[in-house]
Design a protein that fits this description.
Layout lengths: L1 H17 L12 H11 L4 H24 L8 H22 L7 H26 L11 H9 L8 H28 L3 H5 L21
Helix pairs in contact: 1-7, 2-3, 2-4, 2-5, 2-7, 4-5, 5-6, 5-7
């Protein structure tokens, strides 16, 4: 049973550690690979509630931290919470995408899936930032031009959205490969009992069924 619990524990530990404020560059996150790989490797309900539950717990903690450290941030505003909800929609899309892959898929295939998930996350969340505009950015007008600005340049005084996109792709690819490599290592650590657990025993031959030798005269 060791290998069964080791992989989820590693995923959760790395993701939780990565959410320490200012530890990583903006949008350089474990979250994209965490959601995608959870969909690949954790079947059943675990693949949904584990990543989404851990993300929710850490988001609540981060909101409390930012509210205390920066009282002028309206982290509990309706617009910000609606924007956060779109983040979870994007995470759910990544988990669903991971479900389309088999755990035995090649590293190259999983890397492609992780990068695709990062791209989808970028488009969904930046569209939500433009739509809800929780920080009232004047550039995010409700026009096609405003949406294009949200996807490319972003708001004034911050790095361009393309720089965030670069970090999203780099981190999505890097951590997907790391998670996939960890899965292969933990799979090798499983005991013979773990690997054969649930396997069906060969059915006994029906005594009334005659074999080829038995029907010969």
């Amino acid at each position: 049973m060791k290998g069964k619990y080791l992989l989820p524990a590693m995923f959760v530990a790395l993701f939780a550690f990565s959410r320490i404020p200012n530890l990583m560059p903006q949008n350089f996150s474990v979250a994209y690979a965490f959601a995608f790989c959870a969909g690949v490797y954790f079947r059943g309900a675990l693949g949904w509630w584990l990543p989404l539950g851990v993300m929710l717990a850490t988001d609540l903690g981060l909101n409390c931290y930012y509210q205390h450290a920066h009282p002028d941030y309206e982290v509990w505003s309706g617009a910000n919470l609606a924007n956060l909800l779109f983040n979870y929609t994007a995470y759910a899309v990544l988990i669903f995408l991971g479900r389309r892959f088999q755990p035995q898929a090649s590293l190259v295939g999983l890397l492609g899936g992780g990068l695709l998930g990062a791209i989808l996350f970028y488009f969904i969340t930046n569209t939500a930032s433009w739509l809800f505009n929780p920080f009232n950015n004047p550039e995010y007008t409700k026009t096609l031009t405003g949406w294009f600005i949200a996807l490319t340049r972003g708001t004034g005084g911050y790095p361009s959205t393309w720089e965030f996109f670069r970090n999203t792709l780099l981190s999505g690819g890097l951590f997907t490969v790391l998670f996939a490599a960890a899965q292969k290592l933990t799979a090798g650590a499983e005991s013979p009992a773990d690997k054969t657990a649930g396997a069906s025993a060969p059915e006994a031959k029906d005594e009334t069924e005659a074999g080829p030798e038995e029907v010969k005269a």
